[in-house]
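Minutes, project check-in
Item: structure for the 285-residue chain
Input as provided by the requester:
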Amino acid sequence: MSSKQFEAAKKYVDTASGRIHYAEAGVGPVALFVHGILVNSYIWRHQLSALSDIRRCIAIDTLAHGATAVADEQDVSSTAQATMLGQFLDGLGIDKVDLVGNDGGGAVCQIFAVNNPERIRTLTLTDCDTHDNWPPEAFQGFVDMCAAGGLRDTLTALVNDKDIFRSPGALGPCYEDAATITDDTIDVYLQPYFSGPNRVRGLERFVAAFDCSQTVDIEPNLRKFHAPTLIVWGTDDVYFDKKWAHWLAERIPGTRRVVEVENGRLFFFEERPDVFNQELRAHWS
């Protein structure tokens, strides 16, 4: 799915949390994909295009990301994001989903799943915020920069010089080979922050709302979650060590399989979609 095809697939649904953008492809049972920070629903483009033969694949832009618009007073924490997922599904008349999350979106999926187990057909978690491991130590510099008011200048630099985006000091560590991420893809991720006067401020508020107590508090309910769960984790992730995959597996009784993607990093499913898509097909069947 190219960026032009993705743009043409844009849809919106109004919720109490804001006007939520999403892209979808396919028919059948719904699979809902939830992304992390500094990217948006476009990161799931390979899943939407490859898995649409067996699922109605829907990827959303979470609050303060992509084309999703939120009010200045809207809570954008992970818990609020999970609440938004329920509102989003209600708005589309969707009862149950195969839920898939990465990075901060994985924390949102955990919270939503334990609070709404009846709405989860299956759960898939990739490298993500887990328990008290967020923000991860390797990401703390970004959090501090946002708190110091440097986010707008940083985003401007990333847009103006895409090699900065790919550098070890920016999003380079998210990829095995950041050179494969095109300028066009980077623009799809970052240009929306310049589409309105409050978009950067929304992302600042999202980062300021980081609080691992939101996932620490759900551990007792994770231990009661029995929906079939797949955990797929990159072994070379500088943010979320693979030990957290096994931490989740030990606490979620519905865990059917833990897959370690050798040398994979945070966004392995964008770089090596065939590996992930194969696991999803098997899990959903």
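Outcome recorded: The chain has one domain: 3-284.
No further action items on this chain.
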